[in-house]
Design a protein that fits this description.
Elements (H helix, E strand, L loop, with lengths): L1 H20 L1 E7 L5 E8 L2 E8 L4 E6 L6 E6 L3 E2 L5 E2 L21 E5 L6 E7 L8 E5 L7 E3 L3 H4 L5 E2 L2 E2 L2 H5 L2 H4 L9 H9 L15 E4 L4 E5 L2
Parallel strand pairs: 1-15
Antiparallel strand pairs: 1-4, 2-3, 2-5, 5-8, 6-7, 8-9, 9-14, 10-11, 10-15, 12-13
Protein name: Thaumatin-like protein
Family: Belongs to the thaumatin family.
Subcellular location: Cytoplasmic vesicle
């Protein structure tokens, strides 16, 4: 009996950090237009979506240990009663309830929870381009938030322009120089367009040094569109 009790206690203690460190994300639409918020993770795989009129918010809970996580705004969407349709930017396979990542261009709030030394890693990324401004800030944990809210769509270079957004050069050209798919690479004149306007955000795939931020595991967050 004592052995069973100890085993049950150990199992409970194993699960306890996971329940403590699950994260709450409040997603807020401060754009003057409707967006269709979306989220997805790869480990464990999960996702969803919701229509947010201007001023509305949506709260989601993300399991501890989630990796490959991202939140983004879809724009110019139309869905039928079965949740099927399409979006001008950020479309995720033509469904309201995303289970995979969105189509570029879309500004990304990315995260991996409870990773090395039980830290959350988070960032804003323009590697998939830009469609709306983002603020990604902790609401607990005592760490700093990040923001990318420049007029990137209005100032987008001609070769990167897309309906409703501004593409990253990797999306347009697909080469090693811009995509960093075959070894190390550095900034380019086109990635610098994004970096000068949003210094805290990823501008190309290996832009880690100035673009990755951490908070203690168990931190909660707010993602604001058009801050």
């Amino acid at each position: 009996m004592a052995t069973s009790t100890n085993a049950a206690l150990c199992f409970f203690l194993f699960l306890l950090p996971l329940s403590i460190n699950a994260a709450t994300f409040q997603i807020v639409n401060r754009c003057s237009f409707t967006v269709w918020a979306a989220w997805a993770t790869t480990g464990p795989r999960a996702g969803g979506g919701n229509r947010l009129n201007s001023g509305q918010s949506w709260t989601i809970n993300i399991n501890a240990g989630a990796t490959g996580g991202r939140i983004w705004a879809r724009t110019g969407c139309s869905f039928d009663g079965n949740g099927r349709g399409s979006c001008q930017t950020g479309d995720c396979g033509g469904v309201l309830q995303c289970q995979g990542y969105g189509r570029a261009p879309n500004t990304l709030a990315e995260f991996a929870l409870n990773q090395f030394q039980n830290l959350d890693f988070f960032d804003i990324s323009n590697v998939d381009g830009y469609n709306v401004g983002l603020d990604f800030s902790p609401t607990s944990g005592g760490c700093r938030g990040i923001r990318c809210a420049a007029n990137i769509v209005g100032e987008c270079p001609a070769q990167l322009r897309a309906p409703g957004g501004c593409n990253n050069p990797c999306t347009v050209f697909g080469t090693q120089r811009y995509c960093c798919t075959n070894g190390p690479c550095g900034p380019t004149e086109l990635s610098e367009f994004f970096k000068t306007r949003c210094p805290d955000a990823y501008s190309y795939p290996q832009d880690d040094a100035t673009s990755t931020f951490t908070c203690p595991g168990g931190t909660n967050y707010r993602v604001t569109f058009c801050p």
